[in-house]
Amino acid sequence: MHTGFFPPGSVLWDLTQTNKFDAIRETIHQTSTFRAIPGLDLEAFTRAVIKREQEQSTGFGHGIAIAHGRTSQVATSEIALGVSREGIDFQAFDGLPVHLLFIVASHPDRQIDYLRILSCLATLARNELFRQELLACLCQEEVEQKVCSAFQGALLRSHC
Prior knowledge:
There is one protein chain. By secondary structure, the protein is α/β, with parallel strands linked by helices. The protein has helices spanning 20-30, 32-35, 42-55, 111-125, 128-136, 140-158, and strands spanning 11-12, 59-61, 64-70, 78-88, 98-106. It is built from six helices and five strands.
């Protein structure tokens, strides 16, 4: 698994959409994470993520959703983050709106990497201080730096 998560352009600082499917679409299309993947059909990937979301909400609780899709068009797992000040109704189990929308793309044959990433993101989602620090950031670059550092730390500490 590569370790270059959350490079510049991987965070959409101010999501404008409040519908969860539109917010997923906006995050996928507006961050450079997925647009930079050679050969990735953005529309097909968007449909895969939305289809997964229709099956069961990925609203994790605590204001975080971890939407994800599998596609053979990615070699390694990739992650983007959309930040919503207003909040998005994701039908999360705790009923709270989502402010941090993570989108994960992974290859169907990379199940272990995929599960490690989801585990690390879920660990970070449970950390109230982490959530507060991200929402208190003043610019996109600050969010990218904080989420990159926290995610890499989680990968190293727990061997996620």
